[in-house]
Design goal:
Layout lengths: L10 H28 L4 H11 L5 E3 H8 L3 H13 L3 E5 L7 E5 L1 H23 L4 H20 L7
Antiparallel strand pairs: 1-3, 2-3
């Protein structure tokens, strides 16, 4: 692709893009610091626990959990091993498919979520929601939906 055919970012687009990159780094970091101050959970622990807590039986196939979290299976397996050593989850073999296994939330995991949730919600409000009025929140929701739809589609053929 020649440099002449590139549709470069305008100054305004570049400023918004760089703010977005900064938010991607700083928001999870701030939420993680707040969560670890209030609990023994990392942001990744909390996300894993919430995903399990929101399912029937509080368990998921590891492959499904990896897909939902957009993590490589090996990364998730390492993370789950650490969570299991802390008693937050247990791994269970899949009786119908010897190649797969489940991960299930434990009572300790439920307890950890219950203890961490109030502080986490306060941090989400403080760092993300406070100061955003209803109109801006609706606009942000629409923008994020568009971005998620476009990224889920993968590369467009004319760009390959």
């Amino acid at each position: 692709m020649s440099e002449q055919s590139v549709h470069w970012l305008t100054e305004a687009e570049q400023q918004v893009w760089r703010r977005w990159l900064r938010v991607q780094t700083e928001l999870p970091s701030a939420l993680g610091r707040a969560l670890s101050k209030d609990s023994q959970l990392s942001l990744q622990d909390y996300e894993t626990i919430v995903r399990l807590a929101e399912t029937d039986g509080e368990r998921l196939r590891i492959s499904v959990l990896a897909e939902q979290m957009h993590w490589e299976r090996s990364r998730l397996s390492h993370h789950l091993r650490r969570m299991e050593s802390r008693g937050l989850i247990v791994k269970e073999e899949c009786i119908t498919d010897g190649r797969g296994s489940y991960v299930r939330l434990t009572a300790a995991g439920r307890s950890a979520q219950a203890e961490a949730a109030p502080g986490h919600v306060r941090a989400v409000r403080e760092y993300f929601l406070d100061g955003i009025d209803e109109a801006d929140l609706a606009a942000l929701g629409r923008v994020l939906s568009v971005v998620l739809e476009r990224t889920a589609e993968g590369p467009r053929s004319e760009e390959l």
